[in-house]
Amino acid sequence: MNEASSPQNDLPLVRRLEAVGFRAWPAASVVYDGSWQVRLTGGHPSKRLNCIVPLDPSDHRDMATRLEKARKRFEDYGRPLVVRETPLAPPKLIDHLNAAGWRAFETVDVLTVNLTELELPDTLDHLPSHDIGRFCDASLAIDGEDAALKPALAEILSSIKPTSGFFIKENPQEGAAAVALCVQDNDLAGIISFAVAKAHRREGLGTEILSSALRWARISGARSAWLQVVSTNEPALALYRRFGFRKAYEYRYWRQESRA
């Protein structure tokens, strides 16, 4: 595939997936500086909820001043300043970050699949729950995160406007084994917070719960599904490839390593 036809340059698709991504994982505070979206969430450390996301490749005026203004806002929230670089980010901004001592520290792949052509089980092994508290407990336990994050996570989940289904696989003796959140936004369905407990990996639970979430989304009217995965997570990428997911684009997180 040549550069001109690369999905990374399909900016209308990137814009659409970014928009549904914002709605699927809403930040507590969203303000705009020009076309830069400034996302902050005081109670939760998720990078997606605490970053600057430039949304226009041509919007690179007064970069240093705007970054410093944002830094002060992030400091008010007790957060380090992070920039999320998608294909919509101005190339001149990325050049500026490089020159100013910033470094990219994580790359995330955004994957999509056509649900209308996907082979899925005829029945749902798991019905979606609407119990936010139960999903929070399961998700935090599987990820090994502090239970004190439950109120913040519950607030995020309660703020999701599109139709959502919480999929939870639990073992009566051992507790939560796998979780997935499916957010259906018109004809697009997003898979968020998908995780399988370490003790239950390679048992087919990921396939089981992802199949249920995608089938529910298709029954509910979604025609395509999307998800985001760290580019170095090869086991997850292998699972998604088996389902037919393919890379639409990637984004990177940047931070300034030293201000000395």
UniProtKB/TrEMBL annotation:
It comes from the Bacteria. PROSITE patterns: GNAT. Gene3D superfamilies: 3.40.630.30. GO terms for molecular function: acyltransferase activity, transferring groups other than amino-acyl groups. Residues 122-260 form the N-acetyltransferase domain. CDD domains: NAT_SF (cd04301). Transmembrane segments: none annotated. The keyword Transmembrane helix does not apply. Keywords: Acyltransferase, Transferase. The keyword Transferase applies. SUPFAM superfamilies: Acyl-CoA N-acyltransferases (Nat). This is Acetyltransferase. It comes from Neorhizobium galegae bv. orientalis str. HAMBI 540.
